[in-house]
């Protein structure tokens, strides 16, 4: 009689949360929570939601845009600078706010 281990992780039988990874053990499994530093650049870990969220570099003052001549445009995981008054289009997932002359996230609408 030979007992074989069932890999609960491979068979998706684990109950690990989305911020954790499943590690198979003999006869069981362990959920390993991803550390906060595992968020990619441009994202921050929100412990209340246990997920990585985009950092709005423009709102946080983390951009290097010239405040006098450029607008900071937040994008998913990053940002870019555009010359004021020249904006003609926004990145995918954003729309132009013509009154404020900036791109806004469509999800925030």
TrEMBL record:
<dbReference type="InterPro" id="IPR001881">
    <property type="entry name" value="EGF-like_Ca-bd_dom"/>
</dbReference>
<dbReference type="InterPro" id="IPR009030">
    <property type="entry name" value="Growth_fac_rcpt_cys_sf"/>
</dbReference>
<keyword id="KW-0325">Glycoprotein</keyword>
<dbReference type="InterPro" id="IPR050751">
    <property type="entry name" value="ECM_structural_protein"/>
</dbReference>
<dbReference type="GO" id="GO:0005509">
    <property type="term" value="F:calcium ion binding"/>
</dbReference>
<keyword id="KW-1015">Disulfide bond</keyword>
<keyword id="KW-0732">Signal</keyword>
<protein>
    <recommendedName>
        <fullName>EGF-like calcium-binding domain-containing protein</fullName>
    </recommendedName>
</protein>
<dbReference type="Pfam" id="PF07645">
    <property type="entry name" value="EGF_CA"/>
</dbReference>
<keyword id="KW-0677">Repeat</keyword>
<feature type="domain" description="EGF-like calcium-binding">
    <location>
        <begin position="54"/>
        <end position="104"/>
    </location>
</feature>
<keyword id="KW-0245">EGF-like domain</keyword>
<feature type="domain" description="EGF-like calcium-binding">
    <location>
        <begin position="5"/>
        <end position="53"/>
    </location>
</feature>
<dbReference type="InterPro" id="IPR049883">
    <property type="entry name" value="NOTCH1_EGF-like"/>
</dbReference>
<dbReference type="InterPro" id="IPR018097">
    <property type="entry name" value="EGF_Ca-bd_CS"/>
</dbReference>
